[in-house]
Write a structure and sequence with these properties.
The protein has 172 residues and is an all-alpha fold. It contains 7 helices and no strands. Helix 3 packs antiparallel against helix 4.
């Protein structure tokens, strides 16, 4: 909601400046921050499933998770979240084997995945046991994030120091 408000404010400022005859530099495009925010936020179906799970409407949450899974075919983060929440619901309904299967599927994709912080200790242990049976350890650290190339120097601008080469005598 913040991005559209900022864009609206920029348009209003530009329009008022144009009406007064002033010129205002163009605002930067808001599409880049919107794309980043969209990638970080869960889909509408996953967010609805999370809300329904919080309200203990488990059947409706499972239906939303099915739609979220269909929509998240190419989004691994979203798929892992769907699998974890489905496992949480199965464990809440006494389907331990199904819950374990969902947890293992999520952990096969992301060994460092975690259940939500408010998860009961019993279910968190079930999740940890699924990880241990799959990976042989109770916790896995996520891989280090690739460092942004803030201080990196492009190869085209690096200076090479000339090295001394032996003089080649002409062949006789």
């Amino acid at each position: 909601m913040r991005i559209p408000f900022v864009a609206l404010a920029a348009v209003l400022i530009a329009a008022s400046a144009h009406a007064e005859g002033d010129t205002v530099p163009a605002a930067p495009p808001a599409s880049a921050p919107a794309a980043t925010a969209q990638a970080a936020a869960p889909s509408a179906h996953l967010a609805a499933a999370q809300r329904l799970y919080q309200k203990l409407d488990l059947d409706a949450a499972l239906a939303e998770l099915a739609q979220a899974e269909a929509a998240a075919k190419d989004n691994e983060d979203e798929t892992v979240s769907v699998l974890i929440y489905r496992g949480l619901i199965f464990s809440d309904t006494g389907k331990a084997a199904d819950a374990n299967d969902q947890f293992k599927r999520a952990l096969a994709m992301r060994p460092w995945a975690e259940v939500p912080a408010e998860t009961s200790p019993r279910i968190a242990k079930m999740f940890s046991d699924a990880r241990r049976s799959l990976w042989g350890m109770a916790s896995v650290k996520p891989p280090p994030k690739k460092a942004a190339a803030v201080n990196a120097v492009p190869a085209s601008t690096t200076q090479t120091t000339p090295t001394a080469q032996p003089a080649v005598a002409p062949a006789r």
